[in-house]
Design a protein that fits this description.
binds phenylalanine, mainly alpha, Hydantoin permease
Length: 467
C-alpha cells in the first residue's frame, strides 16, 4: 500500500468516524444542522404565544436584547468548548476543566435534566402538530369561524387518550431516528426543508397581512408598551432566548464538537441567530394580524397557533393544501429540535454507562413517556393538579426555560470567562490565528466574562422575586 493509499484509507476511517459521531461535512452543513436545532416549535409556537401573553413589542425588545447580550455569547462559548474538546457535553466539560476536582461536568448533567423537562412538554406540542397534519388532510379544520377552530383544538387536548397517543407517536418517530444515528439524510433534508419553511411562512404572512383589520396585529407586534414589562416577563424573554437558541444545557456543546476546525465560530453563530430570529418574526407576522382580523385573543397562550393558523388557511385559495404543508413542515422543524434535545441524555447514558445507543434511546423514550404523560394530561385528567400554582405542562416549561437554562448559561459563561481563560478562548475563536478577528474575539470575551453572567444573574433573581 502506498503512502497516499494509506492516507486515503485513514482519511476514510476518520471520515467514517466523524460520520458515526454525526460530524458535519461542510460549513454550510454545520450552519443548517445548528439552525435545525434552533428552529422549531420555539419559533412557531412559543415565540408567538409568549409575545401574546406578555404584551407584544416590549417583550420582543427585551427578547432581542437577551438574544444579543446573553444568547449569542453563551452559544459561542458552548460551540467553542465543544469544538475544542470534540466530545459530548459532560465529557467536554470534564476535558476543558483546569482541574479534575472542579465539578464543571455538572453543567452537562444539569443539561440532561433540562432536556428531559423540555422534551416532556415539547413532545406533547409536537403531538398536536402531528395530529393537525391528519386533521388538516381530512379538512375538518378548515373554518374561518374561530369558535370552530378553538373547539377542534379543545377536543384534541382535553381527550386524555388522544393527547397521550399523539405524544407516543412522536416519541416512537424520534426514537427510531435517533437509534439510526443522525444520518446524512436528515441533515440533507433539513437543508432543503428549512428554506421551504421560510417560503411557506412568507405565503402565510402575505395572506395574514392582507386580511381586513390586519394592521392592529402589526401595531401589537411593533408598538412597545413598556408598562407591560415586569421582572417575570423579562425573565420569560430571557428564558425564551435560551430555549430558542438551544443553549444553557449542552446541546450546542455537542453540536460544536461536530463543527469543522476551519469554521468561523462568531460568523456562523451570528448567522444562526439571525436566521432563527427571522423565522420567529415571520411566525409572529403570520399569526398576529390574523388574530386581530378574526377577533381572537392575542393572549390565548399555547393554543394560539392551533386556532389562528387554520383560520388563516381557511380564508385563502387552496388553503387546505397549504395547511397540510404548513403542519408537515412544523412537524419536521420540531423533529430536528427534538433530535438535538434527546441526543443529550442518550449520549450521556451511552458514555457514562456504556449503554448501546438503541438501549439508551429506548430507556430515554420510556422515561419521557412517563414524565411526558404528566404534561399530556395537564388539559384533561390532571387539569386541577398544580405545583406552585402551575399545571405540569406549564411547570416543566417554566422550570426548564426560566430556571435550568439560565442557571446553565450563567455557569457556562463564568467558566469560560474566569476558568477557561482568554488564551484558550482566543485560540479556538481565531482558528489558531488564521482568522484576523482578534478585536472582535476580545470584545466577545469581555462580554462573556463581565456582562453576560451578571445580566443572567440579575434577571434570574429579579424574575424569581428575590429582589
Ligand atoms: N430551540 C428549539 C426550538 O426553538 C428547542 C430546543 C431547546 C432544542 C433546547 C434543543 C435544546 O424549538
Amino acid at each position: 500500500m502506498t503512502v497516499s493509499d494509506q492516507e486515503k484509507q485513514s482519511g476514510k476511517t476518520n471520515a467514517a468516524k466523524m460520520l458515526q459521531r454525526g460530524g458535519f461535512a461542510t460549513a454550510l452543513g454545520a450552519l443548517f444542522a445548528t439552525l435545525g436545532s434552533a428552529v422549531g416549535l420555539g419559533n412557531i409556537w412559543k415565540f408567538p404565544s409568549e409575545t401574546g401573553t406578555s404584551g407584544g413589542a416590549a417583550f420582543i425588545i427585551v427578547y432581542l436584547l437577551a438574544t444579543l447580550l446573553v444568547g449569542l455569547p453563551v452559544m459561542i462559548s458552548e460551540i467553542a468548548m465543544g469544538r475544542s474538546a470534540r466530545a459530548n457535553a459532560i465529557e467536554t466539560m470534564r476535558k476543558v476543566s483546569p482541574s479534575k476536582k472542579q465539578p464543571w461536568w455538572l453543567i452537562g448533567a444539569g443539561g440532561a435534566l433540562a432536556a428531559f423537562l423540555i422534551m416532556a412538554f415539547y413532545t406533547e406540542v409536537a403531538g398536536w402538530v402531528f395530529a393537525y397534519i391528519f386533521k388538516s388532510i381530512s379538512g375538518s379544520l378548515l373554518s374561518t369561524d374561530p369558535n370552530v377552530t378553538s373547539q377542534a383544538f379543545a377536543d384534541l387536548i382535553s381527550n386524555p387518550w388522544q393527547a397521550l397517543l399523539w405524544q407516543w407517536v412522536v416519541l416512537v418517530v424520534i426514537t427510531i431516528i435517533i437509534i439510526r444515528g443522525v444520518s446524512r439524510g436528515i441533515e440533507a433534508t433539513a437543508k432543503r426543508l428549512i428554506p421551504l419553511l421560510f417560503v411557506l411562512l412568507l405565503i402565510v404572512d402575505i395572506r395574514s397581512l392582507t386580511l381586513p383589520g390586519a394592521v392592529e396585529g402589526l401595531k401589537f407586534l411593533f408598538t412597545p408598551d413598556f408598562s407591560k414589562l415586569t421582572g417575570a416577563t423579562i425573565l420569560a424573554a430571557m428564558g425564551l432566548a435560551f430555549f430558542k437558541l438551544s443553549i444553557g444545557m449542552g446541546t450546542m456543546i455537542t453540536y460544536g464538537s461536530y463543527w469543522k476546525d476551519d469554521q468561523n465560530i462568531p460568523g456562523t453563530t451570528t448567522r444562526v441567530m439571525l436566521a432563527d430570529l427571522l423565522v420567529s418574526m415571520l411566525a409572529g407576522i403570520a399569526i398576529f394580524p390574523a388574530v386581530f382580523a378574526f377577533g381572537l385573543q392575542a393572549d390565548a397562550g399555547p393554543s394560539l397557533l392551533f386556532i389562528t393558523i387554520p383560520a388563516v388557511f381557511a380564508s385563502m385559495p387552496f388553503g387546505g393544501v397549504f395547511m397540510v404543508l404548513f403542519f408537515v413542515l412544523a412537524a419536521v422543524a420540531a423533529t430536528g429540535a427534538m433530535l438535538s434535545l434527546i441526543e443529550v441524555p442518550v449520549a450521556f447514558l451511552n458514555e457514562q454507562f456504556n449503554l448501546p445507543r438503541a438501549t439508551g434511546a429506548i430507556i430515554t423514550a420510556v422515561l419521557l413517556a412517563l414524565i411526558g404523560s404528566l404534561a399530556a394530561l395537564s388539559s384533561s385528567v390532571l387539569a386541577d393538579v398544580t405545583v406552585f400554582g402551575k399545571n405540569f405542562f406549564d411547570l416543566f416549561d417554566f422550570l426548564s426555560s426560566n430556571i435550568l437554562l439560565p442557571v446553565g448559561g450563567f455557569f457556562i459563561t463564568v467558566f469560560v470567562g474566569w476558568f477557561w481563560g482568554y488564551d484558550k478562548f482566543r485560540q479556538v475563536l481565531t482558528n489558531r490565528g488564521t482568522l484576523k478577528n482578534d478585536k472582535l474575539v476580545r470584545a466577545i470575551f469581555l462580554l462573556i466574562k463581565f456582562i453576560t453572567p451578571l445580566l443572567v444573574l440579575v434577571v434570574l433573581l429579579n424574575g424569581l422575586g428575590v429582589f
